[in-house]
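hiii, so i know i said id send this last week but things got crazy w the move. better late than never?? heres the sequnce for the chain we talked about at the cafe, plus the structure i predicted for it. fair warning i was half asleep when i ran it
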Amino acid sequence: MKIISPRNHGYLDFLTVVIFLLAPTLLGLSEIPAMLAYGLAAVHLAVTLVSGFPYGAIKIIPFTLQGWIERIVGPVLVAIPFILSFADEFIARNFYIVMGLIIIVVGLLTDYRGENRSYFASKEE
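okay and structure toks below
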């Protein structure tokens, strides 16, 4: 069941950027988890702004492709504390696992073809 519209997904995307930007300071993340959070904020903002959905500023990539990117990013975020060897940092590890799980759940609940379909259909006419 796809209960998150592309428009609402956009709100969640911008919220995700803010969370990644604030996490290093609010959670006291060490160097690697902090740098990763800032990098993820920048990448997430860039992908959001170039996606073909209501909040995309440039609309270079289809919103469905953003969905595939998120299908990869979610599980990678869950694994990243173990890959980058900061799994012993309780707060950092749990932050990335929770963010990864949230991205997975939002991805499963988002209608990536909703308003996206009408946008690209109007471009082809």
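btw Residues 116-122 have pLDDT under 50 and may be disordered. thought thatd interest u
miss u guys!!
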